[in-house]
Write a structure and sequence with these properties.
This protein has 201 residues and is of the alpha+beta class. The chain contains seven helices and nine strands. It has one domain (6-188).
């Protein structure tokens, strides 16, 4: 499959052990191109590499901050192969792609397999991936660099977000830790509970 709008290409494969454990369609894909970023950060597909950590599939799957360690509904067998510009994750489970909404920890089946996922991205990436916040960020002169994600304040799942959201670029690991911590607090809240969000300058 031809890939358009590639803005970063991963290093050569140096994690054969992880590659060998992947579902065949994903493994074949990474053999052709070992992970990449499309649309200036709209989609990041991880690679079978040991570094950089933010691009390493092994790190996201089995590292100290692996997604199954951070989110109760993510299984160790779920393969976190990609993420969007805000840190929502795309997981392979039983041959199907699932989306992890990282602010809340909710999982949703996209009802497509890996090949179909790529086809949907190619067909209409903006709508399928929902990277309108990234487009607005770029319109204001921002540029998301490899190893960065967008942080949104207030978080999109809050009532306050209805009045507008401000986004800024932060390191991937910082965004991942914030989202997991926020989701844990959200899930511990009673139905009428509130949560305070501290934002660093």
């Amino acid at each position: 499959m031809k890939l358009d709008h590639i803005t970063y290409t991963g290093p050569a494969i140096d994690d054969e052990a992880t590659l060998a454990r992947l579902p065949r369609p994903l493994a074949d894909h990474l053999t052709q191109i070992n992970g990449y970023i499309q649309f200036h950060g709209g989609l990041h597909v991880r690679g079978a590499c040991l570094a950089p950590a933010w691009h390493s599939l092994r790190d996201a799957w089995e590292g100290e901050t692996a997604f199954h360690q951070l989110y109760p509904d993510v299984k160790p067998s779920d393969v976190p192969f990609a993420e969007d510009c805000l840190g929502d994750q795309f997981l392979l489970r039983g041959g199907q792609v699932w989306r992890l909404f990282a602010e809340t920890g909710e999982l949703e089946s996209l009802e497509v397999n890996f090949k179909e996922f790529l086809q949907e991205v190619a067909k209409d990436a903006v709508e399928f991936l929902g990277f309108h916040p990234l487009m607005e960020y770029e319109k204001d002169g921002g540029q998301l660099k490899p190893g960065q994600l967008l942080a949104a304040y207030p978080p999109f799942c809050t009532e306050e977000a209805e009045d507008g959201v401000t986004v800024s670029a932060v390191p991937t690991d910082e965004r991942r830790r914030f989202l997991a911590d926020f989701a844990a607090k959200v899930n511990d809240l009673p139905d009428d509970g509130q949560i305070d969000v501290n934002v660093k300058d």
